[in-house]
């Protein structure tokens, strides 16, 4: 067991007797996943709003939230991979929630960049990001819809 895994097991208190009961462990794992996702979405939304609502001070806080968000993702993925689980093997990257997270992240990142690095022209760049995100969402929705219709048509063809 690597040092990283040992540290993460200690942080997660995974050797506690609480985890001995299978049902408790399963329910706790689900509850932890829900809490983890809730924290991620709240942090992401706060990071998207803070630079625009609180200016430069909000941008610094948003930057901290975005870095923490990325670091938490990296730790989660690394831990899973160290236990020979590929988190991306069953992931559907065309889900609306993935695009929503990307758009919200980009809005936060643009707010941070605009407040900390750019002097003017923020509205233009915000429009570019929102327009590009809208285009990507529409394209992904179209691809998904086309695949679904093709699958339905193929299913009907098999029936006849």
Model description:
The structure is a single chain. By secondary structure, this protein is an all-alpha fold. The protein has one domain. The protein is built from four helices and no strands. Helix 2 (22-82) crosses helix 3 (96-116) and helix 3 runs antiparallel to helix 4.
Order of helices and strands: HHHH
- Poorly predicted runs are none
Question: How much helix, percentage-wise, in residues?
Answer: over 70%
Mean pLDDT across the residues is 84
What does this entry show, briefly?
The chain is mostly helical and 160 residues long. It has helices at residues 3-12, 22-82, 96-116, 122-159. α2 (22-82) crosses α3 and α3 (96-116) runs antiparallel to α4 (122-159).
Fill in the keyword field for this structure.
single chain, 160 residues, mainly alpha, 81% helix
Layout of strands and helices, then pairs:
Blueprint: H1 3-12, H2 22-82, H3 96-116, H4 122-159
Helix pairs in contact: 2-3, 3-4
